[in-house]
Amino acid sequence: MKKYFRNIDKVLNQRSPNEIREIALLLVVIISIADYIVGYEISTSLFFLIPIALATWYGTYRQGVFFALLSAVIWYTIDTVFTPHPYVHPLIPFWNTSVRLGLFLISTQFLTLLKSQSNIEKNLSRTDSLTGVMNARGFAETAEKMFELASRHGRPTCLAYIDLDDFKQVNDRRGHSEGNKVLQTVGEILLKSVRRTEVAGRLGGDEFAIALPETNESGAQAVFNKLRINLAQAMQENNWPVGFSIGVISFDLPPANFDEAVRLADALMYQVKKNGKNNIFFEHYPPDRKDPAASRI
Fold first, then answer.
1. 20 to 30 A Cα–Cα from 150, which one of 43, 78, 115, 242?
2. Global pTM?
3. CA 51 to CA 68: how far, in whole Å?
């Protein structure tokens, strides 16, 4: 059962706010029809919490409030217009509607607070404490979603694998505290270089990665050539004998398996290592246009 709900959660997390709104609206329609069919003797108002919760958790707070109001209005309309029945006082329907609306809005607020706290804890568990970028797990989860969306909509995506050259010399000669400063500086530069829709991560040790959505080959070259310059300047300013071997793959259509994309970028980075290190190679995927050597800097 847990696996079933995890799969549902994974699918819904991949949907856009507009898609979530459409799903929630469909559920409201289904529940409304059921409420009309069963009549006033059986209350179905509690089931309206399902689309409200869906819209709040996987969409936005405003969507949750909208569906709370919509559900309350629909329930009142069905109860008083389509399936009318006598009340001992004419204000009772308004009271009942107000109580249900209050329950819906309280549920929306509670779920919003719970979602916020959950996101904070999730971000902490996925963040590398030393560098501030995502850890390997967080990067893989976020980038995989990015690649799935790109594959679904046929959009270009870019993945870079970055390895620090001669980083071991800093640790051996100046100590691990100095090595940590190098990693922290790299993390700071990567965070400044990526936008909110992009993701940077530390895969382990002195290896990092960056994933960029909606980025073609020319865009990738502009971003990573500038990043390489910024990294080199920071190393020079701190007198750290560290270079950067970078492999950048531009995907017209990402492979179905994200691990394959990482493998390709990793393999390209090792080509940089074999060809003298401290350089950046670019490749296009699928490799159907030109020799990758033409994209080497």
1. 115
2. 0.66
3. 9
b/e per residue, 204-213, with b = 16+ CB within 10 A? eebbbbbbbb
- 212 backbone dihedrals φ, ψ, rounded to 5°: -120, 120
Radius of gyration of the chain measured on its C-alpha atoms: 26
pLDDT grade, residue 201 (50/70/90)? very high
DSSP 8-state secondary structure symbol assigned to residue 206 = T
What is the β-pairing status of strands 280-285 and 243-251? parallel
Q: Whole-angstrom Cα distance, residue 154 to residue 116?
A: 31
- pLDDT bin (cut points 50, 70, 90) of residue 296 is low
Tell which residue, 243, 247, 224, 225, has the closest CA to residue 234.
243
* Rounded Cα–Cα distance for residues 281 and 169 (Å): 24
77: part of which helix (H) or strand (E)?
A: helix 61-77
Helix (H, G, I), strand (E, B) or coil at 205: coil
CA within 13 Å, CB half, 284: 15
Per DSSP, the residues of 271-292 read HHHHTTSS-EEEEEES--SS-G
Distance, CA of 244 to CA of 150 (rounded, Å): 28
Active-site residues, by number, are 206
Question: Given this model, what pLDDT does residue 292 score?
Answer: 45
At residue 160, the 3 state secondary structure works out as: strand
CA 159 to chain CA mean position, Å: 15
pLDDT bin (cut points 50, 70, 90) of residue 154 is confident
Peptide bond into 86 cis (omega under 30): no
